[in-house]
Amino acid sequence: MKKKVGKRTYHFPSCPAVVSYANAVGKKEGDGPLADTFDHIFTDTRMGQKTWEKAESEFQKAAISKALEKGGLEVSALDCLLAGDLLNQCIGTAYAARALALPFFGLYGACSTMAESLILAGMLVDGGFCERVCAATSSHFCTAERQYRTPLEYGSQRTPTAQWTVTASGAAILGQTGTGPYLTHATIGVVTDWKITDANNMGAAMAPAAYETLQAHFEDTGRTPEDYDLIVTGDLGKLGSELVRELFRRDGIELGKRYQDCGVLLFDLDRQDVHCGGSGCGCSAAVLNGYIFNRMRAKQLERVLFCGTGALHSPVALGQGESVPGICHAAAFFNYKE
Amino acid sequence: MKKKVGKRTYHFPSCPAVVSYANAVGKKEGDGPLADTFDHIFTDTRMGQKTWEKAESEFQKAAISKALEKGGLEVSALDCLLAGDLLNQCIGTAYAARALALPFFGLYGACSTMAESLILAGMLVDGGFCERVCAATSSHFCTAERQYRTPLEYGSQRTPTAQWTVTASGAAILGQTGTGPYLTHATIGVVTDWKITDANNMGAAMAPAAYETLQAHFEDTGRTPEDYDLIVTGDLGKLGSELVRELFRRDGIELGKRYQDCGVLLFDLDRQDVHCGGSGCGCSAAVLNGYIFNRMRAKQLERVLFCGTGALHSPVALGQGESVPGICHAAAFFNYKE
């Protein structure tokens, strides 16, 4: 059966199943509207560690361990781990992978990594290589903000377009058999650059990539937004997701309520002082591997298009006069095999 | 056909073919013993750019473009690009991917990335998803040394155990059909940590991972070192590769001349003042996608085990008292399908 559909979309004939999933978040995230969809809410976001980076590894380990536990699986039931995070050299992930002692492929797709890891995991499972693969990502407010922007102690004022890097991790186990939801299609992202140079406006940097990948997905599959109960980006925030709506409006397409964004869903934007909403590859990971998959299993959603959006933002490149390109990978999950 | 062999080795039943390959190196690399195996030797290692980081992107673009040209292929013949580098946020790769406008999966496996990208590319091709995939990596002395160690202008004295980050890129195009060599097996790496904390001794940090993955490969496949004409690590350098020999000697196995290291092959260690040899994910990429594949196509080598070795070294983690774990992925290339 031909797996490539159109230019950059793939069909997974065996429809790899979400065998299990879990998430772990920090205190602020646990105070938000999705509180009851989190497996762990850690009020000590340092996780008893000496550094924030080590804490981030603990979040990732907690999410992966919980996904195994919820699925009644031992670590040895996994063929490999596909994971990444936002830190230089992806150390949140590297030290978590060391603790798990699993065959490991490291990924870097900025905030698109949850979608990237799921799609590659799906290809390894559908391709007959692996029986079960874990896909995971994490981010941490305290590790990301100081690496990408300013030292936390500096207390820099946040601009209205800023998003709040979420302290969280999410993990999904994809397998050849399981109760679902099922990964049915994926559209691979292309690096897209509309020349944004503001490190505090990542939503605008990523929105063009989301628009571009969604367009490609609809063109390749012949589907329309109405074919999905939920199209969810992660994480454009309020401004970036409004830009996506506006870009589609110009094409005569109204995305309406079926389109949402993980960064907007995770926080109460009026109450939690997060400006444009959440970001960080732990954000979409925690929302997908909780709120969204929960709603799918409860049959409140049947067809979801999960669009991981990453800003390939580098402080060094920005300082050298470069712009921030974005990338977006889309993964379609259905409650039935298709 | 069962694709998993033993604990963490995979067989590729269709044996994805090396359709084309190319490399691009800097002046110092071009002065070394492998000079006649390089497609491009750029004496201006800044590639006419304003910054070294932008230059690294140019190296990667040059290697990928040359691989396409040598294969008589347009960019549109590729289904996707799997690539990475050593820079924070992998910007050498991100901006190269932007220029190519290809569906793109970003990887981070430190110096193991060439092997990681080839193995995942092989799984995408063998799994029936992609017809042709490009796997590529790059490194640059001037971008890596200042990011991982000290500013170049500081002129820090190099310790005897130090390796020289190679300025180079290599790219391979794997496809469903082609003249070969063929990817037949791969063993996926596990993060291995023998508690090395010296940022100037990466060979020692990676050697245990190479030993561990080679052991797993032999155990999973039932093969012995004698089943290969060449077992090549990339890049442990002189010290690290001696450690691997010694570890196997303790098991009663003499690796002998069939075992070599890309970091030792690329430079003349006596003449070129590189201490323990080359490193950086461009090193093994340039040696594989030139010297090694050339020798395979010339039938001087029939069976090669390419072991990409990465030090998951982070200056931040080291500063926080962490050690440097290593990872090694092994990919077996044969001149015939098996």
Please name the defining characteristics of this protein.
338 residues, homodimer, 6-stranded mixed β-sheet, 10 helices, 7-stranded mixed β-sheet
Brief synopsis:
With about 350 residues, chain A is α/β, with parallel strands linked by helices. The first copy, chain A, is about 35% helix and about 25% strand.
What does this structure look like?
Two copies of one chain form a homodimer. Chain A is an alpha/beta fold. Helices cover 34% and strands 23% of the residues of chain A. In chain A, the strands form three sheets. The first copy, chain A, has a seven-stranded mixed β-sheet, sandwiched between helices. In chain A, helix 6 (202-221) packs across helix 7 (237-250). The longest helix of chain A has 20 residues, at 202-221. The first copy, chain A, starts with a strand and ends with a strand.
